[in-house]
Amino acid sequence: MPLFLLNWTRYVILLRTDHFHRLAWLGAFLLASHAIPAAAQYASAPSFSFEAASDERRRGLGWSDGDPVLRGSVSVPIAEGLSLDGAATTLWGSDRHGGADAVLDLGATYAKQLGGFRLTAEGRYHLFPGASHQGYGEVGAIAGFTLGPANVDMGARYAPRQSAIGGDNLYLSAASAVSIPGTPFTLSGHVGRSSGDVRDPLAAARLRPDGAYWDHGVSLDWYRGRWSAGLRYADTDIDAPRSAHAGATLIARVGLTL
Fold first, then answer.
1. Which CA distances in Å does 168 have to 11, 138, 163, 212?
2. What is the pLDDT of residues 109-150, one digit of tens each?
3. 3-state class (DSSP) for residue 163
4. How distant, in Å, are the alpha carbons of 66, 91, 252 from that of 54?
5. Cα angle at 256 between 120 and 219, to 5 degrees?
6. Which domains does the chain have, with CATH numbers?
7. Distance (Å, rounded) from C-alpha 142 to C-alpha 121?
């Protein structure tokens, strides 16, 4: 197991968690502990990536209170089309997530090519070291296809009703990316909508501070060998009084893939 995941594992196990949180973490840990032995049965090798960014925005919402972040991730193939995935991102005491110092995204992805379509199913559990009772899980499905020079993806991700997010949450999105001919640049954009049932308005505000809302963004990324860098514009239609870390912003990033 990579050293940074092992250190996060030890840290999270020491946290006070509720019963569901503890079971979810145990399941993710057991999957991760078997990932490398299982991967040895297949030709594909694990991939690692590291990134520094000026902000952490997800679905248009600031997760790091506007502070720069560091991220490390790993993907371990265990069968054709199936991989176990893990990522750790610094949050430095995120107000949105109960003062969490980081977020761990643990789960699995299955991808299948059917004719001209790429179909992907995924499951993720999000853990928040440094905060109590903040973890939640979600599942997703994405259908992608090539349209001329562009790749187009249509996705749906759903978090069932959980106390940590004050209800359930559905995110529908459409995204497209196109490589600019003759250059190492890729231009991409997306639009998404978050909605769901609210049982606890305070907890639901973590993922939907203004109820149902739209987010959108545009990115320009540079790729050269194992290195990449990019600029991303992100915004939402959330009303100004509730728009703390949800308004328009420009994010810079640099990354390395091994």
1. 28, 10, 9, 12
2. 999 999 889 999 999 999 999 999 999 999 999 999 998 889
3. helix
4. 8, 12, 5
5. 60
6. 3-257 (2.40.160.40)
7. 7
